[in-house]
Amino acid sequence: MRAIRRDLFILTALVLMLAAAFVSFRAGLYAEEHLVKERLGVQREIGLSVAAVIEKALAYGVPFERLVDVDRYLEAVKQDNPELDYLIVLDRNGAPRYATELRALEGRAALLGALSRLSESEAVAHAGAYFNMAIPIKLSYRPIGWLHIGERSNFIAKLMWDIAFDILAVLVVAILVAFELLRLMLAAAFTSPLRAMQEVLTDASRGDFRQYLPRDFFGGIGQLNRAINNSLEAINKAARLRQAAGRELPAGDSFDLPNTRQVLRINAVENIGWPFFLLIFSESLSLSFFPIFVSQFVDSNSSISHSIVIGLPITVFMLVWAVTMPYAGACCDRIGFRKAFGLGALITTLGLVLTAFADSMLQLLLWRSLTAIGYGLVYVTTQAYITSHFPPAERTRGQALFLTTFFAGSLCGAAIGGILVDRLGFEKTFLLSGGLSAVASFYVLRFMSKTVAHSRTSKGLGLSDFGLLIRQRQFATITFLSAVPAKVALAGFLYYSIPLYLKELGHDQSSTGRIMMAYGLVIIMLSPLVAQFADRARHRWRFVMIGGYAAAIAIAMPLFVEGGMGAALAVIGLGIGHAIGVSSQMTLINDRCEAVVKEVGQAAAVGIFRMIERIGMLLGPIMLGAMIALSNFVNAFVVMAGLIFVATTAFTLLLFLPEKRPTSPS
Amino acid sequence: MRRLLIGGLLSLPLSTPFLMRSAMAQRSNYTVMLILFRGQTTAEEAFMLYLKERVPVEFLIRDIDGDRTKIRQFLNEARQRRVDLVYSFGTTVTQEVVGVLGAVDRNRHLVDIPVVFNIVADPVGAGLADGLAATGRNVTGVSHLVPLRDQISAMQRFATIRKLGVIYNVAEVNSLLAVVQLRQLASSLEYELIEAPLGTGHRPSTTEIEHAMERMLAARPDFVYLPSDSSMIANAQTIVRLATAAKVPVISATESPIYEAGALFGMVTKYVNAGAFAGYKAEQILLKRQLVGSIPIERLQRYSLVINMNAAAQLGIYPPLDLLRIAELVGTPSATR
After folding, report:
1. Collapsed DSSP state (helix, strand, coil) of residue B96
2. Which chain B residue has its CA at the smallest distance from A71's CA?
3. Which residues of A128-138 are buried (b: 16+ CB within 10 A; e: fewer)?
């Protein structure tokens, strides 16, 4: 089955990529032609408006050689159109009269030479390293000078690269969504029904006819369910008739005598993976525009700084999310996965819908907090569910699956949300988010079996659980020296600093988005691979250690490589580090702190771990913000990298020493 | 029954606007008296055009022709004919029509007929109001003056100002107010103010103006400033001729000396815009039934930079390109493309 699944994935990806590549290629060709035309059109418009001003002066009698402050005017036009490299006014003899600041212009002499040689028919031409447009300046219908405007001739190539990267980003999102749907379809149409059928038929073969198969909605293998159910019904009916007639039933066999029609449901990981993806997707729709959305509510007269107020709803969300987690874990342990997820998704839906109609900052904070509670409940439930549905030997693989789904959902949501909001506006996009999370809730409530959580400790969460876990040295080491620094790096470096750093370097929103997307992509691609090794490996702490060092090196990257490339390498490196380290953390805790985890409850332990981890998410932006304010971006990154290096080294020493101990002859 | 009731309730708000409109239509004609200082300007044309398009109205135009003693008889006429609104042009007329704060005489000034003034440079300095806001009296209006600091900044874009000449009539409130401000700005904007005051009443003779100009020009100012002073505006031709002969550009606070007398430029409020704005205020009073005292006195937010290109060519002083781009140019352009 796994082989079939892999082949199907590869096939789907190939078909999708081929189709998308073809469409993109055609679109690219079309776009190139239009881009050039459009760009030339824009250049021409700018040129004509500048020429018109000069001509206005000439028409009212200002002599060409006595125009006042032309250089300053041209410079102002260049400032307004930063893609232009120069504006030069030549007189009739080809001598430059007025121009923008040319001293810093590359190949100035070659350019001026080329311009003076241009014939009058060459409105658009290459001049030196530039793409030049010449516009005549006329008085009484005769040109008495020329305005030349130009930009580097590789500008089209630059534009095309931008578009290519955008298309690539959309392609990645399409493939991820397709994979996620394919995974669900496979599970719904084949894997789950097959397993259910296997179980029911195995029971039947042993003489137990009490379990029925569920009704099928997906039209796969499950189409056989009705026939099998009919047969079971016939057997049970016969048994009931026999009992009513007072005749003896076959010994050792079990029948559905009270006619309860108990239905068997299979808890596949996909059962929760898909709605989880959907919920993360719906919540992440607002990721790319949330700060802009928030800024509508900011009172411009407020005494608090604008940027701090804009950050407020995000911080509150993180905080509520973090605080919710342990309680969410306890709640999930008590009411079971199905109800916990359903409830969480419903609360999220409510929060998102109310957010759409928020009309003050206070309301916004309130509804975001509500959303965070639901989100936290779903997050913890899913993680606990996946943990409990993987055998201990495959736990890391389970965590990797969790993280992959999380990042796939968040990455796709952010990308699609940005596109949607342009067309639908804030309100409708939030409503759509709410609708999607409602679907997730409905799906889980309808299709997931009603079993209660794995660890039925069913006790409330107390401070004692915190104490119990934190006092455990291994738990504290993993949490504070590995998990918290990882989250500080994620929130402080990736979510907070990278957009600001790239903005300072002059990158636009979409290229910033693409660079940040690389983190999610690396996690998605690498986590499953790492998980396979980690589940087989005996020394899982080594993965966490390598992950920590990799993250430290990555964050220091901008020191060695300048500009956007350095930032991109840092983001990719951080993704690699976290893919190696982060999914192993939880498994390591289950390994090392088994007794305590059992005592506290699996889900509650996960909740407490995630909550402490989230302190890092709150700390990250504050720490980096302060360091950047005190010094600059690169120095702040280096200090951050140093801190992570130190934490990782301490982690290694603290875990390495006890591992040695059992081998000593004590 | 319920449906009937709901239908009745619904039709009520729908029908009220019609009821109101028919009530208004009964009021066939409003009478508005315009009291002018010296002839009709584009401000009055714009005022009347604006109102005529919106209100059934009849205008009585009364011109004092520079003689403030005539105002009294016009006010009596306004009371007798029970005009609905009085439009007053300029500071002098407005002061006579409504009286300055603290010296309002019920027998002499209008206290019950709404008054909308226009082309008053500084209503606060002229004692018409405490500030640019609603007065609570029977008067509101439009101030046309661009803040002096902005006018001087525009001048500085042409050339550095070390000496600024100003010719004004001490009998004109507007002028006095402007000169006080010019003196105050002199230290911060680093220029020396050369004053040429005329002190012989509201209608100075050409000879007096020539003498004053000669004295001022002898001090070689960089610019001559022509304030919003009716008696100076009336003699703008003389002032500009003398200044241009001495190669000194004239900057005007109002638009007409630039268009008609060849002053170089000015940062001005167009009379057309001021007139329409005053018309809007009159409409609020007549048609929208707002209390005059609750309508604020306002200044127009849009200024126009007007440059006389013939004067520029004569003086050999050309405006910088970015000013030229946004300016309204006076002169005859030749064709380009």
Report:
1. helix
2. B321
3. bbbbbbbbbbb
B177 reaches A (C-beta below 8 A)? no
* B318/A67 CB distance under 8 A: yes
Measured between beta carbons, the chain B residues lying within 8 angstroms of A58 are 336
The pLDDT, as a whole number, for residue B75 is: 92
Confidence at residue A622, expressed as pLDDT on a 0 to 100 scale = 76
- Two tokens, residue B226: 């022509």
Residue range A551-570, pLDDT digits in tens: 999 999 998 888 888 999 99
Asked if B321 and A141 come within 8 Å (Cβ–Cβ), the reply is no
Per-window interface: B 252-311 vs A, CB < 8 A: 309-310
Report the distance separating Cα A217 and Cα A204, nearest Å.
23
Rounded distance, CA A388 to CA A378, Å? 15
User: In chain A, what's the furthest Cα-to-Cα distance?
Assistant: 121
Cα(first)–Cα(last) distance of chain A, in Å? Answer: 48
Q: How many CB atoms lie within 10 A of CB A60?
A: 23
Strands (E), chain B: 30-36, 57-63, 85-89, 115-118, 139-143, 163-169, 192-198, 223-226, 250-252, 265-268, 298-299, 304-308, 328-330
Cβ A408 vs Cβ A276: under 8 Å: no
Whole-model pTM over 0.90? no
* B321, B331, B336 ranked by CB distance to A67: nearest: B321
B325/A53 Cβ within 8 A:
yes
Flag if A56 and B333 touch (Cβ within 8 Å): yes
Q: For A662, which DSSP code? A: G
pLDDT digits (tens, 9 = 90+) for A529-545: 887 787 777 777 888 89
Q: Do A54 and B333 touch (CB under 8 A)?
A: no
pLDDT at B26 over 60: no
Which position has the token pair 């130009």?
A150
